[in-house]
Amino acid sequence: MTRTTATGSIEVHTYEPTPYLKGVDGGPDLVKIEVTERFRGDIEGEGIVRFLQTSFPDGAASFVGVEQVTGSIGGRRGTFVLQDAGTLRSSVVTGTWFVVPGSGTGDLTGLRGEGGFTANLGQNAEITLEYWFE
């Protein structure tokens, strides 16, 4: 099992937050966010992600998400799903993700991996994914 580290960036095309539960007694709001984005670098393709976010009154946030990526890694084409978790603190978004086992299709069948991302709010994210094939 050879592991390879992919690096690159994500450019967000659409970002559509929808509050679905207002915080009680100063507590955080719950928000659903729909995002489309473009992967560039060692991962090339398009992503569609849905986040559930806890948004605090001070601007901080915590989120989880599931994203389908259609494109290529290392010259192999197909789709796969990433499961994300992260935070927003002081205008910096950081998170981790992993490839959902069994989600790879086409040439990406058997894809596994884990990595993360970081970005200043409103800017492209820098990404890493250490991946391998089963």
Overview of the molecule:
With 134 residues, the protein is mostly beta strands. The chain is built from no helices and eight strands. The protein has an eight-stranded antiparallel β-barrel with strand order 1-2-3-4-5-6-7-8. Strand 2 and strand 3 form a beta hairpin. It is elongated and about 50 Å long. The mean pLDDT is 96.
| Total number of beta strands | 8
- Helix content estimate: under 10%
Order of helix and strand elements from N to C terminus: EEEEEEEE
**What is the CA–CA distance across the termini?**
7 Å
What spatial form do the alpha-carbon principal axes imply?
elongated
Biggest beta sheet summary: 8 strands, antiparallel, barrel
Assembly state: single chain
Count every helix, treating DSSP H or I runs of 4 or more residues as helices: 0
Strand order of the largest sheet: 1-2-3-4-5-6-7-8
Mean pLDDT: 96
Strand content: over 45%
Summarize this structure as a short list of keywords or feature phrases.
elongated, mainly beta, 134 residues, single chain
Compact summary:
The chain is mainly beta and 134 residues long. It is built from no helices and eight strands. The chain starts with a strand and ends with a strand.
Give the SSE layout.
Elements: E1 4-21, E2 29-41, E3 43-55, E4 61-73, E5 76-89, E6 92-99, E7 111-120, E8 125-133
Antiparallel strand pairs: 1-2, 1-8, 2-3, 3-4, 4-5, 5-6, 6-7, 7-8
